[in-house]
Amino acid sequence: MRPLIASVDLAAIRHNYALAKRCAPGRRAFAVVKANAYGHGAAAVVAALRDDADGFAVCSVEEARVVREQAPAARILLLEGCFDAEDDQSAAELGLDVAVQGVEQAERLLSARLARPVNVWLKLDSGMHRLGFEEAQVRHWAERLRGAPQVAEVNLISHFACADEHQHALTGEQLEVCLGLQDVAFDHRALANSAAVLSLAPAHMDWIRPGIMLYGASPFAERSAAELGLKPVMTLTAKIIAVHEVPVGDSVGYGASWVAERPSRIGTVCCGYADGYPRQAPSGTPVLVRGHRVPLAGRVSMDMLAIDLTDVPEARIGDEVELWGANVSVDELASACGTIGYELLTRVTARVPRRYQ
Ligand SMILES: *Cc1c(COP(=O)(O)O)cnc(C)c1O
């Protein structure tokens, strides 16, 4: 079997969820498990959190079905709401909470005949301008939806654009817009993503929506997950499958972009960009072998990558290589590649088996 595995530490997810809850005492939390639980496997993650989580959040009815199988009684929020009339029916049948983010969605819901009413989360566009109504429209729709036969609770939801940036002006402005609706009698309010859970107590409201922090990655560029008390969840581990002595002046890999400046020992590792390791990772990006951080050498291929083992002469074929995990954080790798941990985690491909601990 190809020795490449994404190990997922379910106890670490529970730890991170508990940390999110401690940040917002007394509030409830939707554990965000969209995108296959950020690449970790939604069924296993939901099963691990079933007894702890107050609810789950996903981005489609298809994702919600996976959650519902594991958590028959949980609240499950559709973050973008229903995409069509069939979704409206499914949401009612599955007992989902639905965001309502625009006029089309709202009108369609009010013209549907549903098996039972759904909890609605009216989306306020507080400044991100991606989804949602402006304040006056929220007031209008809150009134129209309240008491409609399709609707149980009427709740308020909004989303921050810059909560990950320290004291960004837009965050305060967005919070002000949300607080401008304090006089409307919503059943519940939910504003906070991980960044706001960790750094913006006034935004905690009734329900928080932690995502990335559950998976042990940081929403902030400037603060590491470890500093925040989060435990890493996914470890991507491969093995060295070949070792080559490369003389000075010879190159390694596609494009011959890496050239040996000293007699070098190059290890070939069975993980490539078709597994989700980023092709943009530059030479020098660290991986862990036998407790040592060693640098990538040359371009990442589809199924393999090369590392410079010269400084770890004891390294052998068959040695494990941590591509990311507790020692090389996914955030560190992401920042070396000009992206964010979210993208790397969600891009681990289907051919990488997930193993749960
Ligand atoms: C994905 C998502 C979240 C979770 O965001 P994180 O930054 O991963 O915590 C919260 N709310 C909404 C609306 C989302 O789409």
Automatic annotation (TrEMBL):
Keywords: Isomerase, Pyridoxal phosphate. The modification N6-(pyridoxal phosphate)lysine is found at residue 34. Its EC number is 5.1.1.1. Pathway: Amino-acid biosynthesis; D-alanine biosynthesis; D-alanine from L-alanine: step 1/1. SMART domains: Ala_racemase_C (SM01005). The active site is at 34 (proton acceptor), 254 (proton acceptor). Residues 233-357 form the Alanine racemase C-terminal domain. InterPro entries: Ala_racemase (IPR000821), Ala_racemase/Decarboxylase_C (IPR009006), Ala_racemase_C (IPR011079), Ala_racemase_N (IPR001608), Ala_racemase_pyridoxalP-BS (IPR020622), PLP-binding_barrel (IPR029066). Its cofactor is pyridoxal 5'-phosphate. It catalyses: L-alanine = D-alanine. Substrate binds at residues 130, 302. GO terms for molecular function: alanine racemase activity. SUPFAM superfamilies: Alanine racemase C-terminal domain-like, PLP-binding barrel. Catalyzes the interconversion of L-alanine and D-alanine. May also act on other amino acids. Belongs to the alanine racemase family. HAMAP family: Ala_racemase. This is Alanine racemase. It comes from Serpens gallinarum. The lineage of its organism: Bacteria, Pseudomonadati, Pseudomonadota, Gammaproteobacteria, Pseudomonadales. The gene is alr.
